[in-house]
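Hi,

Apologies if this is the wrong queue. I'm a grad student, and the batch job for DUF559 domain-containing protein from Goekera deserti produced an output file that my downstream script rejects. I'm not sure whether the problem is my script or the file. Here is the sequence I used:
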Amino acid sequence: MPRHHLNGVFIGSHAIAAGVLTRRQLRESSYRRLVHGVYADPGLPVDHRLYCTGVGLLLPPGAAIGGHSAAAWHDAPSAGPREPVTVICPPEVRWSGPRQVRVHATDLRPSDVELVDGTPVTTAVRTAWDVAVLEPLGTAVGVLDAMLRAGRLDREQLDRLVREGAGRFGVTRVRRAVEMADARAESFPESWVRVALVLAGLTPVPQLRVRHRGRFVARVDFGWPEEKVLLEYEGDHHFVGRQIDRDDERFDRLEAAGWLVIRVSAADLRDLDRVVRRVLAALAARR
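Support response: The file is valid. Your script probably expects a header line. Output copied below for reference.
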């Protein structure tokens, strides 16, 4: 069937024309509509990459999935399932796409695109550039951190990206994101918190290994060794089963060693300014 994905994503009109489905079957069956005219097998996991795959079937020649949408192919999935799909289009290609698509018109060389399971996606290096140009700083740094951590990019490639982009629109944003990227970050929330701290002039040591009287105590997300202040982001897995008790025991050991521990959860991400104020107060109290 024309424009039919092997993983169960297809253009409805093509399936009907090929005799695979009737209009009634398509309408009454449980196929999931991704974007206008494109459907997916209901058994497929629903994530942003699934919607990107559907949009990929509609792309005109020369265009590609890009930005933080393409990051899903480079071990840095940052977009939610229903967030608009970012498409990079050369200026000469006039295409607006369906409603759920965000089109960015800019130069796009064939070497910037790779075909993955039938979907044209920008390369890791090109994705890094577009994410830094198009997304808020926290999102951009989070994607770069994840790509570095996964080995999809290295520091030399990022530095070269900035050098070769000198004079291009957006290079200032790219330089800023690259300067803040750090492979030590272990999650997107950690990256977001670190960006907020650094922008406030509070530069922590990431993944600090704490020792007391020559013995290892714990490794924590962020630390200010001189003031003996720590900040730990607790994701969902920290609140499951025995992990709660293990965390409490670990924090007790840190406090017994003279450290002040600030614990941050997903709810705190809604107000990172408040997190910064908590850190400022803690540091001031220790000086």
